[in-house]
Amino acid sequence: MIKGLQVRSQQFKLRSLVRQHLTLAMEQRYHLYGAHTRPLRSGR
């Protein structure tokens, strides 16, 4: 029971880390390619 909860929390941490890394990569890609064409985060 407790072991399952620990595994679930570890999976959640890993998922959040992956999500942060993906968003960072997307922002860097936007800065590289689309920064001079259109502003970042327009309309969001």
Automatic annotation (TrEMBL):
Protein name per the record: 4764_t:CDS:1
